[in-house]
Amino acid sequence: MKPVKDEVPEPKSPCPFCKDPVADYQEDCSKCLNYIPFCIASGKHVTAEDLGHCKHCKFPVNSSYIKKMLNTEGIDQSCPMCNTEITMDDIVYTGEAGVAALKRAPAKDEKEK
Ligand SMILES: [Zn+2]
Ligand SMILES: [Zn+2]
User: Could you tell me the distance, in angstroms and rounded to a whole number, from the CA of residue 56 to the centre of ligand 2?
Assistant: First the structure.
């Protein structure tokens, strides 16, 4: 039997809410159905362990990605969203603690299973 597809599987990273693997460029988690915000620097959805935001525009970023970006010479050292010149001091790292604030609206009660 031949495999139907011979593609490299899409890279995935964990949903910040339920930790289920979600394709990097997918904006909804198919498991918990939450909308996952995009990192303004990488265009991928944010992850809980990497979560931070620009302190000027408050848009979410994956802090390790923006750090890499700011450490790369020749790349614009400014926030891709608000165009303010930034350093790592302008990136507020929140990690897991910031996840709750990402939810657009509490659709239903959150329950630990
Ligand atoms: Zn999820
Ligand atoms: Zn910004």
Answer: 5
